[in-house]
Amino acid sequence: MTSLLPVLLVAADFTVGSATALSGQKATGYIVVSPGVDAAASIPVIVVNGARPGPVLALVAGSHGTEYASILALQKLAQAADPAELSGTLIIVPLINVPSFAQKVPHLNPVDGKNMNRFYPGRPDGTQTERVSWAIAKQVVEKSDYLIDLHGGDLDENLRRYSYWATTGNETQDAASRAMVLAFGLDHIIMQDFRTPVTPGGAVTITRFAAGLGKPCVTAEAGHAGISDADDVNSLIQGCWNVARHLKMLSGPVSPVEHPLWLSRVSIVTSELDGVFYPLVGPEAYVSQDMEIGYVTDYFGKKVWEATSPIAGVVLYIGAVPSLKKGDTIAHIGEIGK
Ligand SMILES: [Zn+2]
After folding, report:
1. Distance between Cα 303 and ligand 1 center (Å)
2. Alpha-carbon separation of residue 145 from 37, 55, 142, 162, 172 (angstroms)
3. pLDDT tens digits along 280-290
4. Would 166 be classed as within a structural domain?
5. 7 lies in a domain?
6. Ligand 1 centre from 233 Cα, in Å?
7. Of 50, 190, 240, 308, which cross-links 86 as Cys (Cβ 3.0–4.6 Å)?
């Protein structure tokens, strides 16, 4: 039956979880995940529904709940966002892993011991990390056109700011992601390869999942070791605004990075034994192959192992605390690409 109602020239409401924002408005709410084999979860979400139509940009952080600069950045951005100035919609999720934040547990969700950025698209019947990932996949990633995932150095990581650009093999999508990462504004960019096949049914990061759905995306990292420097927080906020301007969701000029340092491969240095870690270089240091970047002592203070760089490159992050056990990550070294 044909409706006889007049067509109204207004943009539609936009709902994520319990947050419904009318056109030109901002709303807060929760993505509620029911209890299953373990506890229920409530993930805070802010929807900024612009006064004019445009793309949907998802901004997420806090899958690692003690990477504080990234979480504070999205809280501040959500407070500042003005729907009257926006074309399109922002879905902002500042803290995916609430138990990690609340209990100050780095890297993992303490409810089930899983990394909350490794299990996308998740499962509706899995443990909490998998159920939360499923909810974010359905309600945030699938509803968006573009995605930015924010991270930083965790409680035990000393990190310099950088972002990631991933190749999928789809030229149009890759060009869109490349333009986003240059607009974001961090000048160290790690190149990832998403062309390698994922194991059927295999779990991936949120950006790899989003890229698999054809959505251009960027990951960016700033902050370190539990500290939330204003420069780090602001770099992430400005990066998100820069991308929104690049996507014509906001007016104003964009100044893409002109001479980024492309990093083609990241080598991970892990500890071969338990002990006490002493770094000898900081983030952003240029190191040569086999150069000593830190050492480990036993609990009496006697030097028992030298950590060396497997490649020549740039230190992206290095251990920030003395605690160390066998298998822990000591450093990420980026190889300079072209
Ligand atoms: Zn992280």
Report:
1. 31
2. 32, 6, 8, 23, 14
3. 999 989 999 99
4. yes
5. no
6. 15
7. 50
Q: At which residue do the structure tokens 């991308």 appear? A: 243
Angle, alpha carbons 221-224-225 (nearest 5°)? 145
Pairwise pLDDT comparison (286 vs 196), residue with the higher score:
286
Kindly tell me if the per-residue pLDDT of 130 is higher than 70: yes
Task: Say how many domains are in the chain.
Answer: 2
Going by pLDDT thresholds of 50, 70 and 90, the confidence category of residue 11 is low
How far does residue 57's CA lie from ligand 1's centre (Å)?
A: 20
Question: How far is the centre of ligand 1, averaged over its atoms, from the C-alpha of 53 (Å)?
Answer: 32
Alpha-carbon span 237 to 269, nearest angstrom: 31
Are the beta carbons of 7 and 21 closer than 8 angstroms?
no
Q: Is the pLDDT of residue 5 over 70?
A: no
Q: Is residue 252 part of a domain?
A: no
Q: Which residue range forms the structural domain that includes residue 29?
A: 14-246
Torsion of CA 223, 337, 329, 164, to 10 degrees: 40
Mean pLDDT of the chain: 94
Q: Report the separation in Å between the CA atom of 205 and the middle of ligand 1, taken as the mean of its atom positions.
A: 10
Does an H or E element contain 77, and which? helix 68-80
Q: What is the pLDDT of residues 224-274, one digit of tens each?
A: 999 999 999 999 999 999 999 999 999 999 999 999 999 988 999 999 999
Q: Is the pLDDT of residue 60 over 90?
A: yes
Query: Residue 12: what pLDDT?
Result: 87
Cα 152 to ligand 1 centre (Å): 6
Are 293 and 317 a contacting pair, CB within 8 Å?
no
pLDDT at residue 8 tops 60: no
Contacts of 177 (CB under 8 A, 6+ apart): 165, 166, 168, 211, 216, 217, 218
Task: Assess whether 27 and 135 both reside in one domain.
Answer: yes
Backbone torsions φ then ψ of 20, nearest 5 degrees: -120, 115
The 3-state secondary structure of 255-302, one letter per residue: CCCCCCEEEEEEEEEECCCCEEEEECCCCCCEECCCCEEEEEECCCCC
Distance 117 CA to ligand 1 centre (A): 8
Contact 218, 148 (CB under 8 A): yes
What is the 12 CA–ligand 1 centroid distance (Å)? 34
